[in-house]
Structures are given as structure tokens and as C-alpha cells.
Amino acid sequence: MGKLIIYKHPLIDHKLSIIRDKNTGMKDFKAVLNEIGGLMAYEMTRDLPQKEAMIETPICETKVKVLAKEIVIVPILRAGIGMVDGISSLIPTAKVGHIGMYRDEETLQAHEYYAKFPKGVEDSIVLLVDPMIATGGSVMMAIEALKKRHVKDIRLVGLVAAPEGIKAIQEAHPEVDIYLAALDEKLNDVGYIVPGLGDCGDRLFGTK
Question: In the 8-state DSSP scheme, what is residue 165?
Fold first, then answer.
């Protein structure tokens, strides 16, 4: 079974309280969402594989450690975009792919409408980003899309999630590590996370 890591960090908790607040405007919501992405990226990259390399400092030649694999950030559109800048500010060499999913409001089923990934994604460490993990349907479909492209190392980065969605993802893809800022109480009868923070995409882009 992959890891389930829920970050208990004072700064993450504080910033999460800001974006949960219904009175937080679009500008602050966007900024704080990226800040949380950066904080989470620092923690989740502690175990990235490394390799040795030789460089020359101004003084002499020396052996150093560098990342052994490429990193690819794959946000699930739309809301996933909101955490990309925060993560890439810490990993500026990371490439970015995109996958578009939408949820049928009646059946709550996820459907893929767009997918584009960098060359070599199959050999990279992929950070799959979706701030809101409700039923888990969109995430599971995105993981399947990555697996079809032979990606072997997939790490799911979320903001808040419902237990129902996490359980479904772990059952379908037990090898995927999951990183969250918070595991919330439940889903309500229309599939929204409780207490959650509303529709992340709408709050991020001002579409509601």
C-alpha cells in the first residue's frame, strides 16, 4: 500500500484556514493556494532519488548529488493549475503536463477531455495535482491515463480530500503515494467535501 501523508504543519494549517473562509477573495485565494503547494512540495520531495555527479567549483573539482529522475507536474484541469506555480517555484526544472477531466453533475462520474504530457513522462516522477479529492473519480481516471503511457512513479498531491475518495483511490491504485493538507469529514449528498472550501476552480478563477 502506498503512503498516505497528511501534513500537520502550522503554516499549512494557517493558510488552509484562509482559503476555507468563504470571505477570502479570488486574489488571496490564488496566492495562498500556491503558497500551500510550495510548502507541500518541500516536504514531499524529501525522498526523491539522487545520483552523484562531478562539477567544478571556483576552487576545485568536487562530487555532488543531483536529482536522478525528471520531475513532471501534471495538474488536473482546472483547479490543479492553482498549485503548479507553488510547486514549480521549488522545482523550476520540472516539466508540466495537463489532463482535463470533468464531472457529470448527475452521475458524479469523471470524463477525460484533454491530455498532453512531456516527452519521457514514462520515466519521470509524476506529481499528479488535484486540490479537491471528493469521490476520487477524476483522480482515478487521471492515474489510469498516466499508466496507459507507462508511467510507473505517480504521486498524488491534494489539498483537501474526503475519506470516501481516498479509500476508492487506494483500492484502485494501492501503489500510489498520496499527500494531503487535510483529510476532511465526509461527502455531502451532492458530492461536495465537508467542511471543504467550496468549488476550488470557481474560487480560483472567479467563475461563480
Answer: H
What does DSSP say about strands 110-116 and 4-6: parallel, antiparallel, or unpaired? unpaired
Q: Residue 153 catalytic?
A: no
Q: How far apart are CA 146 and CA 126, in angstroms?
A: 9
Residues 194, 185 contacting (CB under 8 angstroms):
yes
Residues facing residue 186 across a β-bridge: 194
d(CA 118, CA 95): 7
Backbone angles phi, psi at 56, to 5 degrees: -115, 120
pLDDT in tens, 151-202: 999 999 999 999 999 999 999 999 999 999 999 999 999 889 999 999 998 9
Catalytic residue status for 130: no
Q: For the chain, what percent of residues have pLDDT higher than 90?
A: 81
Which of 28, 107, 123, 207 is the catalytic position?
107
Q: Which of 45, 78, 103, 177 is catalytic?
A: 103
Q: ω into residue 78 within 30 of 0, thus cis?
A: yes
Residue 26 has pLDDT above 90, yes or no: yes
Count other Cβ atoms within 10 Å, centred on residue 193: 26
Residue 47 is a catalytic residue: no
Q: Which amino acid is at 115?
A: A
Whether omega before 195 lies within 30 degrees of 0, making that bond cis, reads yes
